[in-house]
Amino acid sequence: MTTTVTSPHGGAEAAARTTPVTLTRRPGRWLDGWNPEDETFWQTEGRAIARRNLGWSIFAEFLGFIVWQLWSIVVVMLPAAGFTFTSSEAFWLISVPSLVGATMRFPYTFMVARFGGRNWTMISAGLLLIPSLLLGVVVGNPDTPFGVMLAVAALAGFGGGNFASSMANITYFFPQKEKGWALGLNAAGGNIGTAVAQFAVPIVVTAGAAATLNLSLAGWMWVPLILVAIWGAWRYMDNLSNARSDAAASAAALREPHLWLLAVLYIGTFGSFIGFASVFPKLIADQFPAFSTIQVGQAAVSLAFLGALVGSLARPYGGRLADRIGGARVTVGAFSVMGLGALALVWTLPLQNFGVFLACFLVLFAATGIGNGSTYRMIPNVFAARALVVTRSGRPDAGVAMQRKAAAALGLISAIGAYGGFVIPQVLNLSQSSTGAYTAAFYGFVVAYAALLTLTIAVYIVPRRSLAGQRI
């Protein structure tokens, strides 16, 4: 089937646009000739197709985050199911999915171009069945060795990789003017999966269980939704033939110093979000066991989901503030609040007041969410400034190459930043195992946020010739 839409623009500059957009559909739901920058095509047909693909992409990524973070809530319920793992072993079960998920983001970035967005969404969603089903099996037997549990937890990292491929896929569907909106929705929809997992699992595994705990449902409960995601991708999503990965740009971006500086900042913001979200249920269980779960009828509810929920909802506002006053300024504010929140947590912990503890963490989560949005928004601005510098130096081709680096940098930085989800739990693990408390870890976080704040000011607030004097 072929659809032709002609864009009636005049003038020399628009001459290229007057070429009709010919959208050709091939078996396997492949689309040839996709051009969202053509306004007429976008308004008449393109937007509806793009939004349909976005909706199912969000759903699949949402499930990816759920599976990725399942162990964060399952771990605190293992003792009630008869498991006797040490606190250090529990931290490893929490952090290994983040380590694997961050690593999986690198190859996942290129899979859309290799297999097609629709096809890879089906494959990546199907891979979520493995950790979900295996989790349901291993937590049903308290004699399961720790090594087996750790291997199954590592497989949950498949869910962490979904973010990279989902974002890469959606960026091809939307015109430049709407990419920010679409990618923001895609990211927020995924992040909320962490909160949903931490809210729903305690309810489902305890509802109607009386004196027993049906912890296997923590994995099996998601299987029907994963099957729906696979079916929805097969039935409603599309593959774009013009989706191409840029391996050369990725390799070049890795040689750009600003990629690594921004990646460090993103570890501080997104890494803190996913790291604290994964350990929050355990921290509540350790410090305030009476509030680990709250009984509501026959079901138990954990308030740990509030942290991930607040951080997820705050992320779009970070991007919006960055558009108004500059990403670097918002990031500086985020790191300031994160440092103060961590400091307040340490100072108020001796009060043993759960309300104060929860409030401090929610402030911390909100700041990480704001920082996620603002730091991610800084990436294209930094590379645009670098492109302007090299173009002014008389190397226009180098400016184009810098813009290609910017596109590659978004995926690479999101992958590197996710390693914070491993670092945060392991720093807390080290603090507890060596000092018997988490105080040293939180003081370390305060120092780290102060250092990141200083780095942001020095490199991206103070005008620099290397960034064309631009406000980032």
Q: How many separate domains make up the residues?
A: 2
Distance between the termini: 45 Å
Question: Going by CATH, what is the homologous superfamily of the largest domain?
Answer: MFS general substrate transporter like domains
The number of helices is 18
What descriptors fit this protein?
two-stranded antiparallel ribbon; four-stranded mixed beta sheet; mainly alpha; 6 strands; Growth Hormone, Chain: A; single chain; globular; 472 residues
Describe the structure.
There is one protein chain. By secondary structure, the protein is mainly α. The chain folds into two domains: 56-245, MFS general substrate transporter like domains (Growth Hormone, Chain: A), CATH 1.20.1250.20; 246-472, Growth Hormone, Chain: A (Up-down Bundle), CATH 1.20.1250. It is built from 18 helices and six strands. The protein has helices at 39-68, 70-74, 87-115, 117-127, 129-138, 146-155, 157-173, 176-206, 217-220, 223-236, 247-253, 257-287, 305-325, 327-348, 354-392, 396-417, 420-435, 439-461; strands at 2-5, 21-26, 30-32, 239-240, 294-296, 299-301. Strands 1-2-3-4 form a four-stranded mixed β-sheet. A hairpin with a 3-residue loop joins strand 2 (21-26) and strand 3. Helix 12 packs parallel to helix 16 (396-417), helix 12 packs across helix 17 (420-435) and helix 15 (354-392) packs antiparallel against helix 16. The longest helix is centred in the C-terminal third of the chain and has 39 residues, at 354-392. It is globular, with a radius of gyration of 23 Å.
